[in-house]
Amino acid sequence: MADKMKTVVVLVQENRSFDHMLGWMKSLNPEIDSVTGAEVNYTVAGDASSTPVHFGNASQYVDPDPGHSFMAIYEQVYGDPFTVRIYGLDPIKLFK
Predict the structure, then answer these.
(1) Gene3D superfamilies in the record, alphabetically (predicted)?
(2) Domain residue spans in the chain?
């Protein structure tokens, strides 16, 4: 089979960008592991009692692009703001 392959395309994007383009492919092929429409994020990361934000055709406007800085990503992942006084300015300390 490898001798028949002529082209390989690798698409690397943020999950959000990928979902905008290909996330709904499950509706065409149920075997694809993609979004279902039941997924939700909260306006306060990690706080399920805050306002839920759904995506899809019924979504309300939310800031279209989350921050890309280390501190912004830290807050998106952990739900708490990155604190320089605790971690210092060296983000690698988080992984030690």
Answers:
(1) Alkaline Phosphatase, subunit A (3.40.720.10)
(2) 2-95
